[in-house]
Amino acid sequence: MSMRYMVVIEKGPTSYGAFVPDLPGCIAAGETETEALELIQEAIQFHLEDLRLGGKPIPEPVSKSTFVEIGMAA
Asked: Is the pTM of this model over 0.85?
């Protein structure tokens, strides 16, 4: 079975952070955006495996994202 979770990437002053809104506590950080994405994928796998081993339900991916354009006054 395949699940597709939304990942939020945030650029910090010196690194990138990633988190999964549907999996509280599932986070990763990397020096580059690519590294953060690779690490969050591993973190998701470990997080889901931990839930399975603990007999807890696997949360369905329900988060969505969109962009809202805001006009800026000159």
From this structure: yes
Going residue by residue through the chain, which has 74 residues, state the pLDDT in tens, using 9 for 90 and above: 789 999 999 999 999 999 999 999 999 999 999 999 999 999 999 999 999 999 999 999 999 999 999 998 87
Alpha helices in 1-74 (DSSP H): 33-53
**Closest by Cα among 52, 40, 41 to 16:** 40
Secondary structure of residue 8 in the 3-state scheme: strand
Question: CA distances (Å), 24 to each of 21, 44, 73, in order?
Answer: 6, 11, 37
Give 3-state DSSP helix, strand, coil % of the chain, rounded to 5: 30, 15, 55
Angle at 19 between CA 15 and CA 22, to 5 degrees: 175
Using alpha carbons only, how large is the chain's radius of gyration in Å?
Answer: 15
